[in-house]
Amino acid sequence: MNTLSFGDFRERFAHRLRLRMRKLDLRRHATVFSRGHQPDALQRIYVINLDRKPDRWRWLRRELDRFYERHGERLSTIVRRFSAIDARHMESPLDLSILIPTFTLADQLTVNPNPLLKIDSETRAHKITMTRQEIAIALSHIEVWRLIADGDVPSALVLEDDVFMAPGFARELQATWSGLPQDAAKKPEFDLLYLAFKDVSDLTSPRDQKPIQRLKAGIWEASGYVLTRDGARKLLERLPAFGPIDLWLNFQFSSLKVFTAARPIIEQRIDEPSTNSYSVLPVLSQVGVITREKPLLTTARKMKGPVIAVGNRDSGLTALAKALSMLGYTCFSDHHSLPSEEMAKLLSGQRNRLFNAYVNIGSFNPKILATIAESNPGALFIVTSDSKVPSCTRSNQVLELGPTMKDKWAALSNFLEIDYPPFMYPDDADIGQRTASNKKVINTALVATDLKFDASPWILRSERGHWKGISMDVDAALDSDTAVIDWMKEGTLDDATWRVRDDTFPSNLALFTHANFSEKAGLGAVLTLREEETPVREFSSAAIASRQSYLYGSFRAELRPSNVPGLITGVFLHRNGPRQEIDIEFLGKNTTKMLVNVYYNPGPDNTKLEYGYRGTPTVIDLGFDAAADFHVYEIDWKPNAIRWKVDGTVIYERVLWDPTPIPDQPLEFNVNLWHSRSTEFAGRLARKRIPASVELRSVEIQASGSTKLKHTEIATERNAS
After folding, report:
1. Residue 584 near residue 572 (C-beta atoms within 8 A)
2. For the segment 67-121, what is each residue's pLDDT rounded down to a tens digit?
3. Which end of the chain is more exposed for a tag (fewer CB within 10 A), N or C?
4. What is the pTM assigned to this prediction?
5. Pfam families in the record, alphabetically (predicted)?
6. Catalytic annotation, residues
7. Is the CB of residue 325 less than 8 Å from the CB of residue 457?
8. What residue ranges define each of the domains in the chain, with the CATH number in brackets?
């Protein structure tokens, strides 16, 4: 794990300073390395590098070539590139005799103890599943171990491709090497020597440069280490590994001779964006260990284009639109025509357009395409079938991206001159071309006020009074096969359908617990927030969530929210990977208003796009105090629109690109009461009014059968009111 990616400003500044200072290092002869067969030297360097990251391979070769081995040859003469296993192309079932893709929270705490948590039966039972990236990294290291075990050199340096040699590398490596135990022939005696590492143990490093023998866990990172042939064989004998490879290595310390340099002399770069995702981070957030949220915010960059994509139906156009969106394009797709003002700007070559990519637009006939090409010299055209592009285009302006092309990401990233993405290419079926309308169903005099929005490629930066989004002529209907899942005050919450949460999230100052959710026959349920000291929070509260995720439907809750400043009552749909969310929230500081919000990130399931801090919040003046009585609050979510209702009446609506696309991935339904860290958002907590509560009379989900529900068989019959 590249822990510096999550470091504070001082750590990151010091890291960048070392990255620059390394070039001032005058000692370039690293005499520990030798091209010749000398038993006291390092004779081989393996670099683990993805085929789709040739720039990293070139960068690291240049980095190594700043140094010379003992005979004056550059280090690249002993480097071997290992083609890393790509998480995106792992299709065969995992061999469990090599790697078990799960570990426990207790394993994590063994390596990195946390004062807020203890190793007990609960943390031993808390299983964590590795991400695909972690699996690929582990398998890549294991394959390199095989090369070392079967190779002709006594030891080798193993490097991941995002490292650099810290200032003083050659000098300190020599001091480390000579400080290792030696046999009679003065050959170093060890199995594993860490040169890049993060020490999280309680061991104090010496002030000199001697290596430290490690007998207990407490070392992160496996981005730069020396492994002997005997050490590689010992590790292979101990397979299967479990969990991330740097975690598992800690559990081998008692059986191997493991050392670290006195300080890290190889470091991972944080100027190179990481494409890895770490399975333990969401868990640490949920259990309350991570207490400061660091939201992902997109950075503005100039995208080549505009991009125009044309082709026949069922040639992959809808998937291409999603792929362009995942790359950061603001993409208008699958419509019969463009909005007139947008079309005029595109045809005249104006740059202040709302969108920068246009896919499968029915009105783009050959004449219009020719005008677009002439008016926009930087226009790029993508063809997914035998469609024709304007004759005035140059060859480097056109990409043929047929349905049978195997690596579409490679073709797209080369064409658009961007980094190869770490995500799976989307597989959305073509939806054809839709017809837009200017109609909206909402008819209300309620005042709706936009708060500050996030800035992202999936939020239109336009004046909301001018831009109304894209409505459909025909509202997409749910399948007739629907599932009704509900709970009412006369019944008992069905444990097979609903779960009472026992976790939290970084911006929540309360820990959700079972004890704060109570049901009272004939009265409903109560979610209570109270002042209660726990290892991770000073407050505890309650939340319920559906066990199943749903794609489109109506989601209702009849409740009376808390009116205590500092607290937030939430009725919402949510997911991560990619992050999408549809909210109803009541801020306790003023319950005469209801906040609605949408977060949108594109991509299929497991796409690690989770940008957003504020989302796109809008506050609606209800005209009554929600905390004074019970009302039914509803999110009516369809493919083309989201409608928020109160007591069955639509009070607010968002359609496509108003200002975001409509969330299109399965979401789980939640009701909660939480204490926000942000006093600006929720107000300062009125402690004297704690404990506080939300009274809940009913929850109901009416979801489309097209979502392939796994729990329709446990849907409860609606109780008579």
Report:
1. yes
2. 999 999 999 999 999 999 998 888 889 999 999 999 999 999 999 999 889 999 9
3. C
4. 0.87
5. Glyco_hydro_16, Glyco_transf_25
6. 581, 585
7. yes
8. 3-287 (3.90.550), 307-434 (no CATH), 448-714 (2.60.120.200)
